[in-house]
Amino acid sequence: MNIYSLSFLFLFLPICVFVYYLVPLKWKRTVLLFASLLFYAMLEPKNLWLLIGSILLDYLVAQEMDACKEHLGRRRAWLFFGVIKNLGIVVVVAVLYQLRMMQSPLGIQIYTLTGMGYLIDLYKGDAKFDRNITNFALMCSFFAKIYTGPLVDYQYFESQINHIKPSLSRIGEGIGRFAQGLAKKVILADQIRLVYEQVQAIPYSQSTVTSIWCLVLFQAFWLYFTLSGMSDVAKGLAEIFSIDLPRNFYYPFQARMVEDFFERFNITVTAFVRKYLYVELGGDQNGPWSTIFNTLLTTMLMGLWFGIRINYMVWGIYFAVFILFERFILGSRIEKIPMFFRRVYSFVVVIYSFTIFTATSLQESWFYITGSIGLNHLEFMDDKMGYILSSNWLLIFCCFFFCTSFVNMMFKQLEKYLPKFHDLFGAAVSAGLLLLVVGFLL
Questions:
Q1: Residue stretches of the chain with pLDDT short of 50
Q2: How far apart are CA 44 and CA 47, in angstroms?
Q3: What is the CA radius of gyration of the chain?
Q4: 26, 130, 397, 415 — which has fewest CB within 10 A?
Q5: How far apart are CA 177 and CA 383, in angstroms?
Q6: What does residue 280 show for φ and ψ, rounded to 5 degrees?
Q7: What is the pLDDT of residue 281?
């Protein structure tokens, strides 16, 4: 039972919402925690012990850290243990996944890094120890965000679940966002993935310049609509339960420069790495060499978020080169470049990065890099690619269109000038998207 399945839509979610709003306020967190563990148990029963064990161990570490406030050495030792435990789980599972092609446990990065962030905040005094384990366990395992996040810290989440204020308007907004997220995942991401697999099945000997560019572009669209769609689903579900989660994507393909791309793409993960690594290492406060080292390290880790693979690390280095170029070479002069050209430059750099991300080896990446600019004596396009493009032109157009902010801008204008029509039209669109999603899932 996935979060984008019919059983979730018509059985699990309605029952959760009904029970959640039926029970008194003090029991709502317990209901959500039970629902989250039940959801995980139905989806991945073999990995439930890992989720519960990691959460309990992090809570015990936090308890020990709170008990030895006056003993800095012991407190630091417990923090070290907690950090190593969480990073160790992520690394070991990622390595096993690469070596044995095992399925990575659902949400392992979400609940381990959430727990690790809480321990670091507790050590620094930015968070307090909450003896109510329900709050901490729910923060780590909330089923709405277990797939792709967003990552949230204790202070943000605790203030939400301790002051739940149900609102019909928020529930309505949540349903709309939930429908949009499902549509991104089911209608756009899953369908463009099928087209990507058609192109990927073309042998190297039959590759063309067009097939390489389509492979790269379709992979970029699939990744974006999957991650942003699931993040919208998480935020929408949370709003249905009167909880606010932070935005995780903000039209990254419209970035004004490459550094801005990371401000819009996987926003909470970028903020997490920046807060707990980049800033702690000194950021850009200790001279240019420190800035270069810290930027390279953080972008490589952003790449390794998707798995331990040399291509993902190189993908991060690729972005670091452009970020450092913008900081040290262009500097303030980039503001003088017209916005249109800055967006085009960022879009091309980001899309071209997927020649590295898409490949399974550096050798394959080099083939994509050289082939995409016609250096391998490849044909520009053949009949097979012509058929694929002509058969899927509407889907490709929709992917281009819906990765822009045009629709969002249109709705803002409607809300400003025709607020009543905006609400009615928004409800109709949400209902239509849900019907379309159901149609695709049948």
A1: none
A2: 6
A3: 23
A4: 26
A5: 40
A6: -65, -30
A7: 63
